[in-house]
Amino acid sequence: MVAKYVALWTMAWLVTSTPMAADQPFKLVRQRPANMVDVEKAVPQMQFDMRYATSHNFIGRNIHGYEEPACLLTKPAVTALKKVEAKLLPMCLTLKAYDCYRPQRAVDDFVSWAADLKATQMQAEFYAAVPKNRLFEEGYIAAHSGHSRGSTIDLTIAPLDSNIPQIAADMPLVDCTAPKQQRAPDNSLEFGTGFDCFSPVSHPSYQAISPQAKANRLLLQSLMMDAGFTPLETEWWHFTLKDEPYPDTYFDFPVKHITP
User: Are 94 and 44 in contact (CB under 8 A)?
Assistant: First the structure.
């Protein structure tokens, strides 16, 4: 098993989730598809730390379209995710989601924020080494996201019985690449950076992190790839279902829990 993980790690950083070309046609759909699943109900032992429904994110406020802290994914993505969770539970570990389906209006909110060069209140934590006027050029912000297709998830691994810490609004901002004990509190395992850290240190292939962080990145990527997800070469937390059901569709319904 270890040899298999090492082999997968060797190739994982070379694989990216393929973005849709700018001139490729796509559909914008504002209605939730029937096969969208509320992951909290489908995978009850998972943890959910939905950052865009809070003020602790790179913008510093609730993001447009996030009406509730819900994690929604297509049924095929959830089926694959259950395979990963089933392998973690015997190790007393669980997946923890930061973001799942993301409506197009939220992506538009990111784009509008990025154009306002004066809105830098969270820079010291999330993009301390990147001038805001370079966020587009360096690929941290884009006009479309795979999250809006419903089969992409940002996630980490956490101890099974751990509690998600509350982050005070007046907490001092610390660079997301700082040692874990100095960063904003997070009950996840150590992955070398915090979530949404706009830095090369977030690249899965980045080497100047601790052996434990490398091992945790390897475990997460290996399990996700085994289940049919494709990693992103710039974010250790980002995975897209390889056989996603809506490869040419971007959705724009609000994020909220699915009720019967």
Answer: no
Q: Report if residue 60 sits inside a domain.
A: yes
Look at residue 195 and tell me if it is in a domain: yes
The residues facing 158 across adjacent strands are 94
pLDDT at 121 over 60: yes
DSSP annotation of 89 = G
Residues 6+ apart with CB under 8 A from 177: 128, 129, 192, 193, 197, 199, 201
* Structural domain contains residue 91: yes
Query: Whole-model pTM?
Result: 0.90
**How far is Cα 47 from Cα 45, in angstroms, rounded to an integer?**
7
pLDDT in tens, 6-41: 333 333 333 333 344 444 568 999 999 999 999 999
Query: Could you confirm whether 68 is annotated as catalytic?
Result: no
Domain annotation covers residue 26? no
3-state secondary structure of 158: strand
| % of the chain surpassing 70 pLDDT | 90
- Taking the C-alpha atoms of residue 129 and residue 229, their distance in angstroms, rounded to an integer, is 30
Instruction: Tell me the C-alpha distance between 105 and 37, whole Å.
Output: 20
| Counted domains in the chain | 1
Task: Read off the tokens for 84.
Answer: 């990963």
If you search the block for the tokens 């050029």, which residue do you land on?
137
CATH number of the domain residue 213 falls in: 3.30.1380.10
pLDDT of residue 178: 98
**Candidate list 85, 125, 190, 235, residue with the active-site label:** 235
Domain that holds residue 77: 2-9+40-251
- Helical segments of the chain, H only: 2-12, 39-42, 75-88, 104-115, 123-126, 211-226
